[in-house]
Amino acid sequence: MEQFLQQVVNGLSLGSIYALIALGYTMVYGIIKLINFAHCDVYMIGAYVGYACMTFLHLGFVASLCISMLVCMVLGVIIEKVAYKPLRNAARIAVLITAIGVSYLLEYGMMYFVKANVRTYPEKTGILAMTFQLGNINISMLQILIVAITVVLMIALQLIVKKTRIGKAMRATSQDQDAAELMGINVNTTISFTFALGSALAGAAGVLVGIYYNSIDPLMGFLPGLKAFVAAVFGGIGIIPGAMIGGYFIGIVETFVSGYGGSMYKDAIVFAILILVLIIKPSGLLGKSTREKV
Amino acid sequence: MKKLLSVFCAAALAITALAGCGSEKTGNKVEDGATTIKIGLSYELTGSVATYGQSSVDGVKMAIDEVNAAGGINGKTIELVEYDTKSDEAEATTLGKRLMGEDKVLAILGPATSGAFKAEIPDANSYKVPVISGSATSNDVTVVNGKVQEYAFRICFSDSFQGEAMAKYAAQTLGAKTAVIYKDSSSDYALGLAEGFAAAFADEGGSILKEESYTSNDKDFNAVLTSIKDLNADVIYVPGYYQQAGLIIKQAREQGIDVPILGADGFDSPDLLGLAGAENLNNVFFTNHYSSLDQDPVVQDFIAAFEERYGREPDAFNALGYDEAKFLCDALSRCESLDSVSLQKALCETKDFPAVTGTLSVDENHDAVKSIVVIELKDGEQYKSEKVG
Fold first, then answer.
1. In chain A, at which end, N or C, are there fewer CB atoms within 10 A of the end residue's CB?
2. What digits encode the pLDDT tens for the residues B295-313?
3. Do A14 and B220 touch (CB under 8 A)?
C-alpha cells in the first residue's frame, strides 16, 4: 500500500510535466490545426533560461520561473510570426514540415551555443530542498511545488479561456476562423496570444524539470515532447481539460509500468496506448466526433 | 540485356580472382639502415567520442617522448604516424589498411572504442601487424567465437571482468548478501558489466533479487527506485554512464535509499558530482582503471610528470594511453629482430609489466591480467581506493 501511494506521488509529479507541455500542443492545434513540433524545444529553451537565471544571475526560483515564462512567451510569438504566419493559407503539410524544421533549428542552434553536454542546475537550498515523511512515503517540496504550480497555471488558463474577451476570441477562432474574422475578431492577434500562452506554460515546465531532475541538454525536449503529444491526443486534441487528464494519465501509467516490473517496456506501452486510443476512439477521451461536410 | 549481365558476371569473377591471389603476407619490418621505428596512431580525434581519443593520444605522446629522450629502442627513435578516425568505424578500417599497407608501420595504437578497434582487427591478422588498444573493454574484442585474434592486444580489463570484480568486492568487503541490478539496457557496455556482476555475485553465494533496466533517454527513475526500495537489498549495482547514474543516485538518496550504490568506470567523470550533488555521493563505490589516490611511486611519478607537461590532472584515458605506449616499447626492446611478427611474440610474452594502471601480464586470450581499483566516494570526493583482483 505504501509503495502504491509513493508511486502515485511519483506519477503525479511526472504527469504534471507532461500536462504542462501537452496544453501548449492542444491549444495551438485547437486554433490553427497545426501540430507544433517546435513546442517541445521551447520547453528546452525554458529550461536553459531558468538555468542561466539561477547560475549566472543568482536569481531565486520564482523570479527565474517568471523570466523563463516571459522569454518563452516572446519566443513562441516570434516562431509563429516568422515561420507559420506566412504559411497561413498554404497546405497543412507545408506548415507541418516547417514546424519540424523549426524544431531542429532550435535543437541544433542551441547545441551550437551551449554545447551538447549535460548541464546541472545549482544546488537547491532552503525550502526547495525539504522533504516530508508520511509514514514510509517520501514527498519532496519540489514534488509538491510541481503539482501545485501546474494546477494553479491550469486554473489560470481555464479562467483566461472561459472568462475573458481574448479567451472568447480564442474559442471563436478555433470554431471558425473566417466567421470570427467577419465578427470583427483580430485573428492574427488571437493566434499570437495562443502561442504566447502555450509557450509560457512550456517555459514553466522547462524550469520545473530542470530543478527537479537537475539535468538539462539541448535534446531534452524530444521524448517528453512526444509523450506530451500522446497525452494531448489521448485526452482529445484541441480540448484543454483533455490535455490535463491525458498528461496525468500518461505520467501515472508510465510510473506504474516501470514500478511494477516493466521498466524495459514503459515507452513501448505509452505508445501502444496511443495506437489503441486512435483505433477505439480517434477523437480522444473527451473529443467530439465531428462530421466533415462535403 | 543478357550481354550486359554476362559482362557484369565476368567482371565480378575477375575481381574475386584478383582478391584471392594476394600472397601470404609476412609482416612489416624496419629496413636496414633506418634510424626510426614507425608506429601508427589511429584515434578518434574529432567526432562523438573525441575526448576518449584526444586523452589517449596525450598519454601516448608523453610516453613516446620519454622513450625517445632516453635513447629510443636499440638506438632507433620512434616515429608516430598519426591519423584521425573521426569517431567512424569504417574510417578506422581504411586508416588501419593505409598504416599497415602503405606506411609499413610495425604496430598500431588505437582506436579507443571497442567498435572501431574491432573493425581494424581482421586487417591486422592478414597483414601480421599487432594492434593495441588501451580502452576497448567490450567482451568480444580479442576472442571471437572461441578463437583468439592473433594480432590484437588490449591492456584494459573486459566489461564482464570489471563486473565480476565489483561483485567480489560487494560480497567480501561490503558483506552484501542480496543485490539489485539497475542497468542501462541501451548499451553493450552496461550489459557486459551486469552479466559479469550477476554471475560472480551468485558464485559468492549472494542472490540477485531483481534486474531492472533504463535507457539513455530517461530522466525519471523514481518509479523503479520506489520498487527497489521495498526489496531492501544490501547493495544496488548501476552499470552505465555518469549522465544517468548521477540522476539515479540523486533520486535514490532523496527517496531515503541509503544502501551502497555500486558502479563501474562509467562513473568516472567530474559531471557526476554536479548531477548527483555532493551530499548524495556517500557510500558510492565504483571500479576503475586507476586512482590518483594510489600512493604507488609509478602512479605518483606519472601524475607529477603529466601535470608538468599538460598542466592538469590526468584522467583514466591519459593513463591508459601512456600505458599502452610503454607496453609496446617494452615489447619492442625485447624483440629478437625489429619486425612485426617477432613483435607479436614479444607482446604475448609480457609478464608483470609495471604499468600506471596496475601491474599487467598478457594471458592466452591476449587480455590483460591486472589489478583493478575500487574507489569510494565521500561527499562527492574520491575518499579511498583499494586494489582488488
1. C
2. 889 999 999 999 999 998 8
3. yes
